[in-house]
Amino acid sequence: MSWARIWAIFKARNMEFVRDRSAMGWNFAFPALIVAGFAFAFSGKPLDMYKVGVLQTTGAKPDLVFFKTDYIKFIPQRDREEAIIAVERHQLDMLIDTDNRRFWINQSSPKGYILERVLYGTLAQLETYTRATVTGREVRYVDWVVPGVLAMNMMFSALFGIGFVIVRYRKNGVLKRLKATPLTAFEFLTAQVMSRLWLIMLVAVLVFIGTDYFIDFTMHGAYLDLFIIFTLGSLCMISLSLLVAARVRNEELAGGLLNLISWPMMFLSGVWFSNEGIHPLLQKVAQALPLTHLLDASRAIMIDGSNLAGVSSQLFILLIMTAVFMLMGAMSFKWE
User: Fold this and answer.
1) What CATH number is attached to the domain comprising 94?
2) Same-domain status, 216 and 293
3) Per the structure, how many domains does the chain have?
4) Cα gap 194→10, rounded to integer Å
């Protein structure tokens, strides 16, 4: 193995990336814009979670504790029949008539059930409880989603930045010419992995620092632990891309395979929403995806304040996946 040859390929790949200004700019701008967009969309006063229609036939203001409940939007209604139809269509979670002491809910609406319990609780309190309060910073949605955005950007950069490029080299005859040199397949793949890994981590670090300066993310764990998790996750994604690009000869097939891998990971691994509510079978499928373990570990560090020992199971799985993907990709690699 010659480090001089590895360095030459490493340097050439970096220069190719830097000279492609549009691709380089998109790698920085895309995650930053997504994070900023979510921060703006979910900023401000918390939205009301429930909608209750209030029939007002006499014009008197209702005097019930129920109407002082937070996070419920009370909407005056004039026409009873139209309001009942709105409840049937789940446009209103509840309709209440204080004059006749009557209310309507949709029996298939979970929100209607909760509001019914709240209403009964405010009408008659059979037991007395001692109220206790706690203090703490709210974990915003942007705090929860930022590891997913960064990991998603790493995934696309790793899969398409390695897999797609190698297939293009093979199609254009670049690999055929490199085969005629003393460069070995191991040296070529090592240089590709090193080049993409440091570029991915550079983008991730700069985007994280830049967006954190304006948004101030929740961070209860250690930054070094988070960096290690992201590094290992990126290496796992790069290894997976090598497996895809090992023998594929045309860009169309490579693009289809990479999309087939990346899109299920983006939707099943919990980038945008928790996968706790999806079908149990899909939850098991998600456990076979590297992005799932990357996100579980990074959120445990950022939000729960865990350390590397606390996410050792995710680390172990990522290490095993990386080794398997790397070995299979290297063994099946073809120059032509």
Assistant:
1) 3.40.190.10
2) yes
3) 2
4) 7
Task: Specify whether 198 is located in the same domain as 288.
Answer: yes
Angle among Cα 41, 303, 277 to the nearest 5 degrees reads 70
Task: Judge if 107 and 217 occupy the same domain.
Answer: no
What's the residue count for the chain? Answer: 336
Q: Name 171's Cβ contacts closer than 8 Å, sequence gap at least 6.
A: 249, 250, 251
Query: Residue 239: helix, strand or coil by DSSP?
Result: helix
Residues 211 and 327 in one domain: yes
For residues 264 and 270, give the distance between their C-alpha atoms in angstroms, rounded to a whole number.
Answer: 10
249-300 pLDDT per residue, tens: 777 777 788 888 888 888 888 888 777 667 788 888 888 889 889 999 998 9
Tens digit of each residue's pLDDT (9 = 90 or more) over 104-139: 888 888 888 888 888 877 765 544 444 444 455 666
Q: Transcribe 58-73 into DSSP letters.
A: S-PPP--GGGG-TTEE
